[in-house]
Design goal:
By secondary structure, this protein is mostly helical. The protein is built from 15 helices and two strands. It has helices at residues 2-13, 17-20, 25-47, 53-74, 84-100, 107-134, 156-179, 186-206, 209-233, 238-266, 278-290, 301-305, 320-354, 359-375, 382-408, and strands spanning 140-142, 148-150. Strand 1 (140-142) and strand 2 (148-150) form a beta hairpin. Helix 6 (107-134) packs antiparallel against helix 7 (156-179), helix 7 runs antiparallel to helix 8 and helix 9 (209-233) packs antiparallel against helix 14. It is globular.
């Protein structure tokens, strides 16, 4: 069963079926998500549920989610363009995320999932290349700005989201080894850095500005910390510094080209900042959200509005805060804020107690995701939400396994 779980994680999280197979992509995506949901439930039933914070947290989340489902279906007729199908599809997607937190993993399964998250961007690129050769799908997207963007088997923004989580995962593993003072053998260290290099290159080639910024924020933390410890321990190697000095010349040349293309994407013809149409879409979705500000228009509201949306390139508002306000209103936003705050507090507490990852890294990651969420819909997109919830699942299971070993001592 666990191998089926691995397969459907990849099928849901790494590949965008709708653009790849325009005629049947929606049906394929719905089918693979339904299969993943069923497999997740079966795994939970087989492996059982232990009463702990995560169990209570997830069940509470599911209860609140179900109450909103009942409320939104009951008032559907009073909300313009509300669609029961969109509400139910969104409900099942959020339910999958909450249920995923309850899956109990063995140590080797936890490690396998961490590897899957890190290899997802490469899978997307390889599948995209195959589809590009065999179908009319284009491996590279040439947008109106003239910038060629790598998209693999996903639109560039979705591929960047997969990379974003993959890079966070690799850096979290490195942070774990650092705070636990674990000396990695060359093979394992090389594998981690190869993942980081490949995923960093892929995200740069998507030219997705905000995800690149999000990654840079976390990289800066690592750079400052490593420099600090290198100075502290006087671990600088003159040979290494010389090699890096020589290698930085071609790197700066490549970086210059990438920055020029990013500037080209980020400016309009008059030299102003280009939000790629987001500003107009934000205004439209905010107007629609304000019509039902207390309880929102219902889960999946942006999809329900899509046929009437004057900005057809935006299926969603491309702003997680506006999307949440649109779907669940002020009441839902307050509940979500408290819900996330409680979980973040638990993560910080467990990170400190169990030496999982440093709290500074957790805070940097939260800041990074919060900034990216202002320009993109992360949690409603399976290409971010699935790998991200799996990374959290690995954290949860590591804490559980460590507690088990400590209790048995």
């Amino acid at each position: 069963m666990i191998y089926l779980y691995y397969i459907f994680i990849i099928l849901v999280g790494a590949i965008s079926w709708k653009p790849l197979i325009p005629e049947h992509g929606g049906l394929v995506l719905t089918s693979v998500k339904a299969c993943l949901l069923v497999i997740t439930i079966i795994l939970i039933l087989i492996r059982g549920i232990k009463v702990n914070f995560i169990m209570i947290y997830s069940i509470f989340g599911m209860c609140v989610l179900t109450l909103f489902l009942i409320l939104q279906i009951a008032r559907k007729d009073s909300v313009e363009y509300a669609n029961t199908g969109d509400i139910l599809r969104s409900y099942s997607a959020y339910l999958l995320l909450l249920l995923s937190m309850l899956v109990r993993l063995k140590k080797e399964e936890l490690l396998n999932i961490l590897k899957i998250i890190q290899v997802m961007p490469s899978i997307s690129v390889i599948v995209g290349l195959i589809f590009s050769i065999t179908t009319s799908w284009s491996f590279i997207k040439f947008e109106f700005t003239g910038v060629p963007r790598l998209q693999g088997s996903n639109p560039p923004a979705h591929l960047a989201e997969i990379c974003f989580v993959a890079i966070i995962t690799s850096l979290a593993i490195l942070d774990f080894y650092h705070i636990n003072k674990v000396i990695l053998d060359r093979g394992k260290r090389a594998k981690l850095y190869i993942f980081l290099f490949i995923n960093s290159l892929i995200i740069l080639l998507t030219f997705t500005r905000i995800e690149i910024l999000g990654v840079i924020i976390i990289f800066i933390f690592f750079l400052i910390r490593n420099l600090y410890y290198a100075f502290l321990k006087d671990n600088f190697s003159y040979l290494l510094v010389s090699i890096l000095s020589l290698g930085i010349i071609p790197l700066l040349f490549c970086l210059k080209i990438i920055i020029q293309l990013l500037i080209k994407r980020s400016t309009n013809n008059s030299g102003g900042f280009n939000t790629s149409g987001r500003a107009a879409a934000w205004k439209y979705f905010m107007e629609k959200a304000n019509e039902h500000r207390f309880f929102g228009r219902g889960m999946g509201a942006s999809e329900s509005l899509y046929p009437y949306n004057p900005y057809q390139e935006f299926v969603a508002p491309h702003n997680e805060y506006i999307r949440s306000f649109l779907e669940v209103g002020v009441v839902g936003l307050i509940i979500m804020f408290i819900f996330f705050l409680v979980y973040i507090k638990w993560i910080l507490k467990q990170s400190f107690k169990k030496n999982v990852i440093s709290n500074i890294f957790v805070i940097c990651t939260i800041i990074s995701i919060s900034i990216v969420s202002y320009y993109d819909n992360l949690f409603v997109t399976v290409h971010f939400s699935i790998p991200f919830i799996l990374a959290n699942l690995c954290f949860i299971n590591y804490v559980r396994l460590k507690c088990h070993f400590e209790d048995s001592d």
